[in-house]
Design a protein that fits this description.
alpha+beta; about 20% helix
């Protein structure tokens, strides 16, 4: 006996194929060096020293004052 079976509808339930998930973009970071300021980092990486507050806002979990950064801190950049 031969059966002709056709499946219609969406993907089969339990097919084991995971849904495609886009990988998050790689976060840019900068390691603070002695003598650095947020303004200088912003100018180098964002094109404008005035953009320092963007870096500060993104790193409020480790910064309490934009003028107090320490060598070795790894800051996220927008």
């Amino acid at each position: 006996m031969v059966a002709d079976i056709q499946v219609t509808g969406g993907p089969a339930a339990g097919s084991g194929a995971p849904a495609a998930v886009a990988a998050p973009p790689t976060a840019k970071t900068y390691t603070v060096k002695a003598g650095d300021t947020l303004g200088a980092i912003a100018k180098e990486h964002l094109g404008s020293a005035g953009a320092y507050m963007k870096i500060f806002e993104l790193n409020k979990d480790q910064l309490t004052d934009p003028d107090k950064i320490k060598p070795g801190q790894v800051l996220r950049l927008p």
